[in-house]
Q: What sequence folds into this?
């Protein structure tokens, strides 16, 4: 064992040590071995790296199923797609809602891929949970505490994205809200933080990967699509995430990015996604892991 | 007229000019004269400056009514107090909920002060609206779009706090969500943004006051309590806000700050609040305005 | 005495308490009464507020002297003007150098106003010190430690601007570099920090005014011109600075802003400067102070 | 060729297009093929990745030579070590100065490793250039324009670190200062930017790697030691940097980190550096490159 590893083992975990209010359940102190979240038999957080891919938003059945087929062919094992979309402007496309959920159900039936989809409102949880295999809580809702409580009362795994302005401590507290209600299947996701830099949409905080892995037993994945905002940046960030120790990736792919109703500039073309997956397999091997294959 | 003022009149408003999705209803282009939001006869956004004060959270009937009496005596015209509290840790005091709302009703009856109180969940809107005269949407919910839509469907004035991570553009879009549903009684509130500086809890962005006043017709107030996080910083920031052109203040006062269950370090003592009000009257006069008096 | 004041007196000053390396000489612990820096008989840091004004850069003798006369007429007591200019691009106007210094000397002779001018390089200190009454160290050089040491070896007062990326602690350490070499005439200047917000050029951190006043005995002034980047924002920020407790202002004025070779968009017209000074006198009076008058 | 690559080729480079002041010489538009900076026969910016390692500061001849031997044994090809140290506090160890430069000369003679060392002051350039093979300009001096001009007049390669608060545009302009004086041997170095997150010392901006590679022809390396501030984070960030496309690494190693006079917490133990190099070779291979070997 190296000196660094020895040091890490004995190092004091520095998250808020207030014995009354500090996070307990998410802490690696409380559970030294890593948590593996199982989604329809797919283990997230183990030696194998899980790639989730699909469109930002569900737009049409054709768009969704064509994209789903292509990401499955490329090697993704979970399908992403939003039916309820948080949009900065009230005049932007707000998602297809329940109709979009039904399309996700059909895409799952056609491809066999489990589905991750976002929930924005406590009143949507029940409905989204009928169609999705993982409930996503987005960056803007990371401190929507009533929603976190509903997620904690739910039986499905939760993909909890880091708030764009959340510290690591606040992020762990948000996860603690879910665990404290009895749901310990939480997947963390670094998706970029807001900084002064504007040449990319957000700044991916890669330091957060080892920091989170040290402080918590929960799996940590990375969203290089939102984290960069431009498709030509995505491949290098996806590779870097695996090299840095991430347990998975959440990647936006669209069968026709130029026609996307939402975030088209950050969606990969299916062809590029396939090539990226080949590269990711090499990086995974270089760090002693592999990409999960169905 | 000075050259600056001439320039401002002809200056292009720079918020997202996308004709499809850009904010329309909040823009000063669409309504050059300032909006005055009326709360039980109190005009917010006019020549008179309105001071809202009270505890961070409703804790007990005594705490609330004693504090309410003292801020009324000091010159506040609206009472603040949270029954539903967004807390970083699930193990911190979460607010008294509906019981707290009832206490707010009693405090209003005793003091005659209208009430502003926070709503965190679409499911709480109906209940909070029974007791509060202004619904507050907090910093962490500034982009909780389902909640903004509910606020827009509601008949009460909305106090919409700036997200700690929100740009001015995003803030105006959030207000546009409310206005686009038919509710044009929105009060904006600068409460500090998150930056690298840690000597204060947040960084009050005072530039935002003239910037907001130029871009939108909505009233703009300032919360120096959350914006600094420490009571000894609050008075100078309250004075600066009035000097910079704010239409009002939201100030935390607690009859016994050292016993507060939430944010006690930023609550003023009633004695200090009274002295601050005397100072604020002088600053208001210096900028050609006055503090609204019941 | 109010409870806040009592609390401040007993409050632990929180700057780095490392007994070996922590700042000592700048600390209010080491010198409870405020320092007054005297510049040709003008006291900076006392009850009277000192306004420094003039162009960003010295461009021509006419531009400088016309602007100097107008700011003197408006009530400024110190003239600013850069002969050596830090510019982002190597292809932008870099300042007139020694020729500019001579022009500053002439403008001082004509108006009687003492001069503050920037020094960017250890090799310039000797020359700038021949013409300027205050040496300015700019934001980008706040941690140019060799320059700070030269400034400490110099006999002139130093106007040390806060780095756009500097914490309060780092800022105080930078001042400590100067004091530790024997020069205790240091004026601090909040000029905006870099944040995610882009609607203004920088974010003025007004919390820093009371925080600095509490931690150090040195005078604190504000530069609303760089702090906002737009002339129409400057007046409200100048007023807010006085209300918040600043000891002075550094304001850019240009006799023809539209022709300025540097930062024209943030320079006031002389007419507007005069009107602002009238407003500042009212604010100063409202906080129990006055504007220093020659 | 993939669709992404086609898109990148035709994409407009978005750095300041002002034809008068925009950066020209650093732009990939002006020189599509990547620049290779040669340091004593070692090519930086080509297919091979160059690892520079050594102590933060030169402390003693033993410390330097022991560390130099160990990083050479581990596979580093360039030795780092500061003789002039920018320190936040005037009371911290400021470096050995010229004596330290002489030790660097001895360490180079003993190990054959070329040396990179920091220059903080225009007056130091001549002396540092006698001993160093690469002049480093640190983060705090990225906009020390007189120093950039001196570096441009110098014949040695320049390692220009990104300012902790500098945008990519400002960074490219800083490099343009050097190139515009005739020195085109500039190596860029991402070393972390300042953000609100405090769990690591800085936030490494990995998006900057592809962004810089697209905008400029200059080589780009990463400093994971300053970018994280903690040695246990360094290995994963070093691997991520190679996966993201960096051309090299700058890593702090100390033969006895716990005794270091500067930044000991981020220095690797020699043993860990050797293990990291083995891992880096695998990552380099996975991205079709290799680690440069003497």
A:
């Amino acid at each position: 064992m190296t000196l660094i590893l020895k040091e890490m083992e004995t190092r004091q975990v520095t998250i808020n040590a207030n014995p009354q209010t500090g996070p307990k359940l998410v802490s690696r102190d409380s559970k030294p071995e890593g948590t593996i979240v199982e989604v329809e038999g797919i283990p997230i957080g183990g030696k194998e790296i899980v790639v989730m891919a699909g469109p930002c938003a569900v737009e049409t059945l054709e768009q969704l199923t064509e994209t789903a087929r292509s990401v499955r062919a490329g090697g993704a094992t979970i399908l992403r797609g939003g039916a309820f979309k948080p949009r900065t402007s009230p005049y932007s496309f707000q998602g297809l809602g329940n109709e979009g959920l039904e399309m996700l159900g059909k895409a799952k039936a056609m491809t066999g891929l489990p589905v991750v989809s976002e929930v924005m409102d406590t009143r949507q949880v029940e409905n989204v949970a009928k169609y999705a295999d993982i409930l996503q809580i987005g960056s803007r809702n990371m401190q929507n505490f009533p929603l976190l409580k509903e997620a904690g009362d739910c039986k499905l795994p939760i993909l909890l994205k880091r708030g764009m302005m959340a510290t690591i401590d606040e992020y762990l507290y948000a996860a603690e809200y879910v665990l404290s209600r009895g749901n310990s299947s939480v997947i963390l996701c670094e998706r970029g933080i807001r900084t002064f830099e504007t040449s990319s949409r957000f700044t991916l905080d890669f330091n957060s990967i080892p920091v989170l892995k040290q402080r918590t037993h929960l799996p940590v994945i990375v969203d290089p699509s939102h984290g960069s905002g431009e498709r030509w940046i995505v491949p290098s960030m996806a590779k870097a995430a695996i090299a840095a120790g991430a347990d998975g990736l959440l990647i936006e792919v669209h069968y026709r990015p130029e026609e996307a109703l939402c975030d088209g500039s950050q969606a990969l073309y299916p062809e590029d996604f396939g090539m990226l997956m080949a590269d990711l397999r090499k990086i995974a091997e270089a760090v002693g892991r592999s990409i999960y294959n169905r």
About this structure: The CA atoms of residues 152 and 178 of chain D lie 4 Å apart.
